[in-house]
UniProtKB/TrEMBL annotation:
It comes from Sinocyclocheilus grahami (Dianchi golden-line fish). Residues 99-511 form the GDP-fucose pyrophosphorylase domain. This is Fucose-1-phosphate guanylyltransferase-like. One of its GO terms (molecular function) is nucleotide binding. The keyword Transferase applies. GO terms for biological process: GDP-L-fucose biosynthetic process. InterPro entries: Fucose-1-phosphate_GuaTrfase, GDP_fucose_pyrophosphorylase, Trimer_LpxA-like_sf. The gene is LOC107548491. The keyword Cytoplasm does not apply.
Amino acid sequence: MAERLNIHLQKSTKEKLDKFKQMRGKEVQSDEFWDLVVITAVDEDQKSAYEVQITEKLERNELPRGINYHVFADPPGCKIGNGGSTLHSLQCLHDKYGKSLSGFKVILIHAGGFSQRLPNASALGKLLTALPLGNPLYQMLELKLAMYVDFPSHMKPGMLVTCADDIELYSVPAQENVVFDKSGFTALAHPSPLSVGATHGVFVLERAEMPRICDMEYRTCSQFLHKPSIEKMFKCNAVCKREGKEFVYTDSTYYFDYGTSMTLLTLFSEISPLTCEIDAYGDFLQALGQRATVDYTENTANVTKKENGLVEIRRKIFHRLKGTALNVILLNNSKFYHVGTTEEYLFHFTADPCLRAELGLLSAAFSVCDLERSEKTRVCVTHSILHPSVTVSQGSVVEYSRLDARVKVGSRSIISGCWIGTDLSVPSDTFIHSLAVNLDGKMGFVTVVFGVRDDLKKSVSSPAHMKALSLFEVNLEDCVGLWGLFPEKVRFSGDTTMCSLWNACIFPVCSNLKDSFVMSLGMLKALDSGTNFTLLKNATLTSLQETLQNKNLEEMLKFRKKLYEDILRVNLSNSV
């Protein structure tokens, strides 16, 4: 049974990829694809980064043509969350298109944020994370569009809301389609273990008159639970049972029709300007369904930052959306993958046989490399040039990089945007990422290095407590001592009441990309061996946070473009 379902999933996924492949670089018709593709960004800087890259992708025939791609930045000021971004994007679309919006099918992809748990996506955006798939190479944007390629032709005008850091695969019975034609909200639901339900949204289904077991089923949801305890899942009758196994239906992507978008715009006018973060899942969906109550508005247990006004805004959301239908499409043969952390990224792209088989992931995609010296079935190389003598150990990812002769990469490491010189070795469990930066009126390069398990978000209240932060299992105070720095002189960028690895100014700015890598690798080796490493006198030190605020987007894209041209040239010469 499981094998049959997996074969269906692989076949269905391949059909979607093949269909999207035919659309790349071609003019598409409004009845076969989205009218608008909308992407959210955390600020104007990230918006510009997305716009530049989308323009380049269109020029390289990587995306369908004939439709409008929009990037909307969150307004300046406090964070507004993906719920706030949804409302803000709706307002931007309404301002631009007016009543014409009533005839449009729109996909909204939430791609804002700084990706602190997957920092190689921080500079250029998580929606443009490379995938070892396709020619031209896929990024998350193309995969999202490919996996939903069948939706627009079976959808009433409205908006599909999804996130940039997850992958949903599904199959439906032959001659059937996922149809979005109902008023209110319609959500996709995936069967998941109860442990997964505890960290996601869970649907409580109305009883079906004639329940049937099939790949897809249309149901009504009476209540939506946001990150519930297992006890609450049972209490609310959210737990289902099949073949002796207990499971729940969890959330991923949802749709709402044009009429509902007008209701949301009315809500936005009542609660703007926003002064706190709103969750597009927890705060919207918990207001829906016959059994929804106002009680959830007081529960801030799952809120990362408790802000004034959140409860009041939640109440307004509840009263505005109360009575709106929550329809659910049960995708019983589906998989949901989250790719938002370094651990998930490494596992899914190198070690997970399921995703590799389902998506047809490659060990090397759009790259020049000879993996004979590497453990080729357990590595991932994308958009990179590796000298034939390079060795990459199992579980490692190399993206947008150039590795010279006899470079060795340890296991479970991430190499991103780097130029690694001859005979250098990267230890196992290392995250290392090079960026171009403009600081003090000069252009330079910074290479940040962390352990793949390091917590960049963990913070302490002042620099004096930096000993509680650890880099490669060495406390930060000892780290800076090994590098010849005085702990009391170490600077933290931004808010100094939240000192973390994210804003610790410990990385030197260098004049060229290769030297930058050598310098940071030396710092890492010092921690590994416990020996001193002396930074250059008067070196400018910066943090990952500060580097992103001052990144030189043009220079980073230039490096990628040169790689692109060199890979194309080698591939062309090899094919002659």
